[in-house]
Design goal:
The complex is a heterodimer of chains A (about 325) and B (about 375). Chain A has about 325 residues and is an all-alpha fold. Chain A has 12 helices and no strands. In chain B, the strands form 2 sheets. In chain B, strands 1-4 form a two-stranded antiparallel ribbon. In chain B, strand 2 and strand 3 form a beta hairpin. The chains are: A mainly alpha (about 325), B mainly alpha (about 375). The interface between A and B is large, with 53 and 50 residues.
């Protein structure tokens, strides 16, 4: 029981950044924009959030900074892929390449002089998990409540996102834009504005996911702190079939892998660390194969039909 | 006034040359502003970067050292991108190429005649890269599994696999705890031309010319072009789309594998940490800046390598982050992407008559 409890606690903690980024990308992709820049946006969110917390000690400000940075990068992606009609795959890749390079640069430059201008090795304000008096000591429930405020926000965000997407008018418009931009346009929905809006909103959530890494899960800045999470999220979006309510499962699965890995390493197994570290990536590939195979088999494609294509009235 | 985009029948040649040049200048300006913000003189910094990369024989040879793997992987990626197969797994394919080459040298060194050992090792590396790329290619063509994710995930797997080897079973017992394999015997050292720059350069240049010929002059290249433009159209013309994609991606991975094979025999001469310093990712920028043209790839690769060497240089001399070179590379991509609109579309400014402007156009 003790073991399950501790694994579940770490799972939720590790899964928080994944859920946030998954929700963000679901919104973006629902509008028909594929953003492969997640890895770069998460890294930028992590480095700027950490720097802000280090210098001001104000965690709310740190989150605002990292969300603003995420919004700017996502805006760039929207400009390139929606307005300039660049290929979304390449534009997203560019965001990732630039973002990871720039995050590394900032990590080597934003620090104090005493640390050779580096951010590595510093510690700043961080989110501490709560430990409510009675609930926190009950197994399983304790794992759910002994979390930081961002994880609590995620508990709220998932049902809200689902409700917004399936039960409200703007949610309907959003899905319409992603599925059939021509019809949405004819219905009077501004396709380009919708795509801009949700790409930027998604980018903010993704950056928040990055900030959770540097401000809570693995506090501090290390280069490549995300370790490919941005890419795993792209797979999680497919795994969730673009439905916010299912975002939690993929994140739990991968958070769980992290937790098990963590436990195994702590207990000193014979399995080489490299193989344990490979697990999330291999599982991602396997899950992706399975989901794709299952979707073709059941002819049930949950993805927005216009995903990845630019929209232009004259192109009809 | 109204702006209209008209799709061009063929890409504008002028724009294809102007856009990368403008992008480079744009990136210089932006990085310059950034440097100024961080209280470094941009002119002195750029001067130091240029000097570091081209100013001395030593610097130039180091630029070539980094340009060689960028050329090979850049060419590899260009092939795949032409088919809109988004192979971002060059890093992993390079790593597996290096691992396989090292494996042959370390374990078959005694059973293969010395003169054949190097070619055999290089070929195995090429094959390993091709096979590593072949997995996502087959998954894509048979099950339609997204190749972007699979190729990327396989990078992590490949790198961790190589780490497992040189930290574990392949580790040199006499290496004083240093993680890395035994040093290769001199018979398999790739001959060097200038400084540490090795004959991998010739391989890359020959590959660039051959690819250009394949794409411009052969039936196969022509078919690949059709598949890239429209798989549907290719299918109607009776082209075996799936098989051709797999073959092309094999070739793509083979070149990346060759990059790893030449790195491991030409530079480190053992399998150790840092076989690839993100070449596979920078190669995406190389391919894109070269607009997937094999002849342009070597030139762009030298430029990108110069930014890396220059970045290292300003770190050593001025204490600026080495990542600056990478930031500059990244910044080049955005104007490049925005500019592709002008190579594909013709922009027309139309002075709309007043009455037309008042017409309800359904602008929501």
């Amino acid at each position: 029981m003790e073991l399950i409890n501790s694994i579940l606690t770490i799972t939720l903690r590790a899964g928080t950044s994944l859920v946030l980024a998954t929700l963000g990308e679901i919104f973006t992709e629902r509008s028909g924009v594929l953003n492969l820049g997640l890895e770069g946006i998460m890294l930028m969110g992590a480095v700027t959030g950490f720097a802000a917390s280090y210098y001001t000690g104000n965690l709310v400000f740190a989150l605002l900074v990292s969300m603003t940075v995420g919004a700017i990068l996502a805006l760039l992606h929207a400009f390139l892929s929606v307005t300039m009609r660049a290929k979304q795959v390449v534009s997203g890749l560019s965001i990732t390449l630039f973002g990871s390079g720039f995050a590394a640069f900032l990590g080597q430059r934003l620090g104090p002089e005493s640390n050779h201008f580096r951010l590595v090795g510093l510690s700043g304000a961080r989110f501490e998990p709560f430990h409510p008096a009675v609930l926190g000591d009950i197994p399983i429930i304790g794992a759910l409540v002994n979390q930081d405020i961002i994880t609590y926000a995620v508990y709220l965000l998932i049902p809200l996102a689902w409700f917004f997407m399936y039960k409200t008018r703007p949610g309907l418009w959003l899905r319409a834009v992603g599925d059939d931009p021509q019809t949405a346009d004819a219905m009077g929905v501004n396709v380009l504005r919708t795509r801009y809006l949700y790409t930027v909103f998604g980018g903010m959530l993704v950056a928040l996911g990055g900030a959770h890494l540097s401000l809570s899960y693995t506090p501090g800045w290390t280069e490549n702190i995300t370790g490919g999470r941005g890419w795993i999220v792209i797979a999680l979006v497919i795994f969730s079939m673009w439905n916010p309510s299912r975002a939690i499962w993929g994140a739990l699965l991968f958070g769980g892998i992290n937790a098990v890995q963590f436990r195994l390493q702590a207990s000193g197994t014979n399995i080489p660390a490299s193989f344990l570290n490979m697990m999330p990536y291999i599982v991602t590939i396997l899950v992706l194969i399975f989901i794709t195979w299952w979707e073709t088999l059941s002819k049930k494609v949950g993805g927005p039909a216009s995903l990845g294509t630019s929209y232009m009235r004259e192109d009809k | 006034m109204k702006i209209i985009f008209e799709k061009r029948k063929s890409h504008s040649v002028a724009a294809m040359i102007a856009v990368p040049v403008i992008s480079f200048v744009f990136s210089l300006i932006l990085t310059g502003i950034m440097l100024a913000i961080f209280k470094a003189n941009p002119f002195i910094t750029f001067g130091a970067m240029f000097n570091g990369a081209f100013g001395s024989m030593m610097g130039f040879s180091e630029t070539l050292v980094k340009a060689i793997p960028l050329m090979l992987t850049g060419l590899g990626i260009s092939i795949a991108f032409k088919l809109k197969f988004w192979n971002i797994g060059a890093e992993g394919q390079l790593t597996m190429g290096g691992v396989a080459t090292a494996g042959v040298v370390l374990f078959l060194g005694d059973s293969i005649p010395p003169t054949l050992l190097l070619p055999a090792a290089l070929l195995t590396g090429v094959l390993a890269g091709a096979l590593w790329a072949g997995i996502p290619a087959i998954l894509k063509t048979s099950l339609n599994v997204d190749e972007t994710l699979v190729t990327l995930m396989m990078n992590y797997v490949a790198i961790m696999f190589s780490e497992f080897l040189f930290y574990g079973p392949w580790r040199d017992p006499k290496g004083f705890g240093f993680p890395g394999s035994k040093a290769f015997p001199e018979t398999v050292w790739l001959p060097r031309i200038l400084g540490r720059a090795h004959i991998g350069l010739y391989f890359a240049l020959v590959a660039a010319i051959l690819l250009w010929i394949v794409f411009k002059r052969t039936r196969w290249g022509f078919e690949l072009g059709i598949i890239g433009a429209s798989p549907k159209a290719a299918r109607y013309q009776g082209i075996a789309v799936g098989r051709n994609i797999v073959l092309a991606v094999f070739l793509s991975g083979a070149l990346c594998g060759l990059a790893g094979a030449t790195e491991v025999t030409g530079i480190a001469r053992r399998l150790q940490q840092g076989l690839s310093i993100g070449y596979g990712y920078t190669a995406i920028i190389v391919a894109w800046m070269a607009q997937l043209n094999p002849i342009a790839v070597p030139f762009v690769a030298v430029l990108m390598a110069a930014l890396l060497v220059g970045g290292d240089q300003v770190q050593m001399m001025m204490g600026l982050p080495a990542a600056m070179g990478i930031v500059m590379q990244g910044m080049m991509l955005f104007p490049m992407l925005a500019g592709s609109l002008f190579t594909e579309y013709r922009v027309k400014w139309i002075r709309a008559p007043k009455r037309a402007a008042a017409c309800p156009e359904g602008e929501a």
